[in-house]
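Researcher: Last one for today. Full complex below.
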Amino acid sequence: MLRFCFLMLLITGGASSFAQSTDTTYLKEVSVYGVPFASYATGSKVAQIKTGTDIQTLSEKLIDETSLYLKTYGNSQLSTISMRGTTASQTAVLWNGMNVNSPTLGQTDFSIIPLFLFDEVSIRYGTASSLYGTDAIGGSIMLGQGPVRIQPGTTWSALLQTGSFGRLDAGLKFQTAFDKWELRTKIYRSFIENDFPYESPAVGYSKKQNNASVLNYGIGQQVYYKIGEHQQISLDGLYVYNFREIQPAVTNDQGDETLKDSDTRIALKYFYDASFGTLSAVAGFVSSDQDYTNDVTSNVRSRQLNGQVQMEQPLNPSANVRYGISYSNYQAWSENFINDLSENRIDAFASFKQAITNRWIVNLNLRQSFYEHGTPFAPAIGSQWNIGKEAGDKVLIRMQAGRGFRIPTLNDRYWMPGGNPELKSEDAIHLEGGMTWSALKDRTSYSVDVSTYATWADDMIVWLSGDDGIWSPTNLQKVNIFGVEGEASASFKLDRSNIRATLVYGYVQSVNQKGLNEFDQSIVGKQLPYTPVHNARASASWKLSSWQADVRLNYTGIRYTQLDNAQWLEAYALLDASLSKTFDASKVKLRVRGEVQNIMNVYYENLRNRAMPGRNYLITLTANLNRN
Amino acid sequence: MRSLLAFLSIVFLSTLVACDDDDDQGGGKYEDGIFVVNEGNFMDADGTVSHLDESGTVTLDLFGLENNDKALGDVVQSMYIDEDDDVAYIIVNNSNKMEIVNPNTFKSLHTVSDLSLPRYFTTYDGKGYLTEWVSFSDPGHVAVVDLESHEVTNTITTDYGAENIIAHNDLLYVSNNFSNTVSVIDVDTEEVIKTIEVGSSPGEFVMDVDQKIWVICGGTYNGNDGSLVQLDPSESRDVSSNSVLKTIELEMNVTPKAAINSSGSHIYFFKGKSVYEVATTATEAPASPLITEASVVGFYGIGIDPDDDIIYLADGKAFSGNGEIYWYTANGTLIDHTSVGRGPNGFVFEE
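Model: Here's the assembly. Have a good evening.
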């Protein structure tokens, strides 16, 4: 029973960029080799984060730079996301157009995603099942590589990092292009002993973690080949290994649980920019192998094979249409599944984008997923108005309405004992509106972005214990979400230096609407557990010639730990600062960076009774070599 | 005059004796009323022991309240009160420890750590006996605990999932929940002298009016083969004889928890929202439940107050939040209900 319980348990704002104000075709996009779906996100809030220059997990990055809430089970431990008041399985994580959330758990462990292997991460806030399919209710996160230029030359970069609690990381990147080829290789290794001391009020004396070390290493390889002026084929592969000792609760002395993950992903992509339209096709393979050990080892393996084809065409100079089909085959193996568990899914999708005037764009997305117990048809409509007056002044108003869904996971349906094959998909309706205002005056630029949204989620899947003590999922829960997000940033150019300041705030009311049965009122009208109402971040960055100093304050509000809100964890604020210096020679660039995290040495818990470290340090040395 | 003097001296002497009774632990807050054991949410280490006093006031977390907000730990499985020594032993299953407290004030006396998935505890003849699952791959055992030094002096291996334990006539009976057996241990030799085959997933023991021991068995997964098995303790020392007197097939799966009334005539168990009553003289399962409480999410624990035969039931509410306890008269009429800690799984009554 105990083991079963465990197994269950996984920037800068602005709307999508778009070609400027002429009546020409909007077909050609610069980043078209990268993330092909970004251009159909009109009316939604999308943020882009540049990554790959540090060895850091996606969890750490999102905590540092966004107002998103990540539920972390300790330092460098399991980390799941809650976007806009939704659950961990209501955020889609996409890689080369494929949803790489675990098909068994339906969510992603963000502490295993190594940002060193990716050049950029896009965050799409709000429901987007019309574009990305299942899971994209709270938001979607796209992991991508930088644009391909195939300019002859070679670059190397090496990274060495050391920090508190026995942390030692090393990484190497290599990129070369010649003739019609471009190759990129990335390899890294990261280890933390994680033996941090802590004093939890629930225990009353100082203890040291003795079972929380994490080893993570991986390799990423991309190969691009330009077949012709308008045709390209590419291969994108990665392998990540993560071995984690599971940090026990503060009251438990003999933690000895471990979790080993091996993830492999390969995608073959073809792209053809023809006169009649743009054709792209992807064939992908995603495999995950997980061993959980607590005396005995339980293994869960899953595999996804995916093929998708899409065509994008101009209908007239101011309208584009895109349509396509995606096929996925999922398989999973575990002692708790029947043999040969396998599932096929087909998705058909279409998008239509029209520039009504050169300042007003409307986008319609449609998607239908075919799955045996039915998923709702997911349409979405978005719109964006640019009402800025002068050059440099931009005012964008955006609106979005759409339907989202989440197909029940393989665990939900087939886990033995308890799995319920009759489950329906979770269903959500989402509305949002927002405004971005940015201006450039003299040497100052500033932007303010405000969004407000509402989501009505129904048929949400909850695991409850049955009459005989067997836990089983049902489509029980109904949640209404309302939120507001604000981001303000400003940059000032002084004589020799540059200052940038950002303030981010998120407010989320995510309220449960139904009791456990028709008599139970104790959980109705209550905020979902581990969904803080307030989240905020303030940061400032000062750049003076080759020096850069950063300071950041992160605030996380009260989190309830129970559905009836009778218990909660205190709010906390963390202060981090860093200083870096760059040395620039002709072909070599060297950067040294020192960072102090949790400067005020605050004792805090993100999850009940899982200690987090006090003040800690990180020193990073990066070398970039350009040989053209 | 002499009789008055005699009377006065008797009164005087009796007050002296009365004073002796409550000297050190005099008048603790929690002397009366009942305790509710709450497991807490697995891995959150938020298990508690709640207290319901005679006026209906509930204290949600006794240990935290009386010990500077210290946490009891992860999965508080059970509590045992040794009436002779006035000590309470709280077993915290997933924190691998036992907290020893004063049952009247709930102040912490001692912590026994480094256990191996402990489950239930009992005392007999001055020694303590703790059941431990040990691990999910090894057979369970009984650890013999010295009550003064709190050291484990011996371990006696039983079968997989050593769970509940009851002492009677120099013998210990242990139910092995991951298996289908009850192990009998001789208290003097500290060895297993007999292994009795019962139903699948045996759990709690109760003793009836005829000094026979009953064990409730949950049954196999989806097998609808839960049962109540009556054992004859007088057969325990004879390895070849059949200790099982009778088996009542319940024809459904149940949580292996049970309670017996003060006269030892009727056994009570539950399933889902219903509570069933079986006479110890019965041979068949009850046709219908004694109590069905529609507002309950799912019962998770049962206890009967030996003083007044009030039946207490705990609704675990799927660990979504604080649990709820309901209590009924002996004939099944609801008296009241109230909130307790998270995941209530049992009741402890002070005698």
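The interface with chain B takes residues 2-3, 5-6, 9, 201-204, 249-254, 294-296, 417, 464-470, 516-517, 519-520, 522-523, 561-567, 607-609 of chain A (CB under 8 Å). Chain A is about 5% helix and 55% strand.
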